[in-house]
């Protein structure tokens, strides 16, 4: 039945025939070394801010200490230059008091716990487009220990409360400069009633392997079909490198791994030409890499966009081949009147059936957390 599914023109190029799985690329992500590093005075007053300062200096980066706590002069001559400059800027700031009021983040976790906002990667469908205000500078929070302590107020007695740190950044993409993810993992290792969740498209996991996580952190990697990753996810690790990172995180400590509960986030699922073959190839490779018992989950997220995110993405990536044609989508409204465009039910149904069947066949003991 899947062969009869119409393929939506998400990419401009025609489908290759016959199907040949692309040779896996093994490239690691390049370490992000921003051209500009800004510290606000308040951030430098924080002991954790000082630690970030040391890390940044150890990477031979120049630091500008600002005179005030406001970030200014972030815009370039036009949208392209603003984007380019912002993606090359790390700003270390103190999170405002509002950051202590956590927001729910279903279905991924109970609450968001943001250690930073902004991301060094260049995904053409980026989830942050339209949700963060202003130029997409990476803002890292120097008062992280205070933010972490605050989350204890959200733990509910008698049940495990989950905190997601990946809503507004790629936590591994900035970890070499911040150490923030390690700080979170150590913190939640001491909290019996709380669980931490993160997800990444980077592969630098070695610094996480020896941390005392106590099984309280679920380490997830974001995976996709090769054509999506290669053409849409600039600056990230290759799919193969991410799969090998997943293996390292999941391997028992006695075998040199991190012994973490792990997860796959398959997102955003796209109806690219030959989608069934590409995703089959991906799932086969994950199964090959996880050839041992481990605590594994999966989350399935199909591609969607809002009018706001589409406008921002078109500005950021004017040459994108991502198709934003609303006429081949279903409009889904939320209770505040906002609209997002998702796949139509006739497309969604076979997609869902395919992923559920193929996942359960390979990983019968790994729960599917949700499909959206
Ligand atoms: S990794 Fe996530 S946050 Fe970063 S650019 Fe890609 S989609 Fe956006």
Automatic annotation (TrEMBL):
Xref: Pfam families: SPL
Signal sequence region: none
Domain of life: Bacteria
Name of this protein: Radical SAM protein
């Amino acid at each position: 039945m899947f062969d009869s599914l119409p393929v939506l023109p998400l990419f401009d190029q025609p489908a290759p025939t016959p199907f040949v799985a692309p040779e896996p690329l093994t490239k690691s992500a390049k370490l992000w070394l921003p051209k500009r590093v800004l510290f606000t005075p308040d951030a430098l007053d924080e002991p954790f801010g000082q630690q970030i300062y040391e890390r940044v200096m150890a990477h031979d980066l120049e630091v500008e200490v600002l005179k005030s706590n406001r970030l200014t002069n972030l815009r370039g001559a036009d949208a392209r230059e603003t984007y380019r400059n912002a993606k090359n800027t790390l700003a270390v700031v103190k999170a405002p008091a509002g950051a202590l009021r956590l927001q729910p983040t279903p279905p991924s976790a109970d609450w968001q716990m943001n250690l930073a906002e902004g991301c060094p990667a260049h995904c053409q469908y980026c989830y942050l487009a339209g949700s963060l205000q202003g130029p997409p500078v990476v803002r890292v929070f120097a008062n992280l220990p205070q933010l972490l302590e605050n989350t204890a107020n959200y733990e509910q007695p008698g049940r495990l409360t989950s905190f997601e740190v990946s809503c507004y950044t790629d936590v591994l993409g900035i970890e070499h400069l911040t150490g923030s993810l390690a700080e979170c993992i150590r913190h939640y290792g001491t909290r019996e009633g709380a669980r931490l969740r993160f997800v990444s498209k980077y592969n630098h996991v070695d610094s996480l392997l020896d941390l005392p996580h106590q099984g309280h952190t679920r380490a997830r990697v974001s995976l996709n079909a090769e054509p999506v990753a290669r053409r849409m996810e600039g600056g990230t690790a290759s799919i193969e490198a991410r799969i090998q990172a997943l293996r390292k995180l999941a391997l028992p400590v006695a075998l040199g791994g991190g012994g973490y509960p792990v997860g796959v986030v398959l997102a955003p699922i796209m109806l690219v030409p030959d989608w069934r073959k590409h995703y089959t190839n991906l799932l086969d490779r994950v199964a090959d890499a996880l050839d041992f018992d481990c605590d594994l989950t999966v989350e399935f997220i199909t591609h969607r966009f809002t009018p706001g995110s589409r406008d921002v993405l078109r500005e950021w990536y004017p040459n994108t081949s991502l198709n934003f044609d609303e006429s081949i989508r279903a409009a889904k409204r939320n209770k505040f009147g906002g609209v997002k465009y998702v796949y139509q039910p006739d497309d969604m149904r076979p997609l869902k059936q395919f992923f559920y069947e193929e996942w359960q066949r390979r990983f019968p003991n790994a729960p599917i957390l949700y499909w959206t």
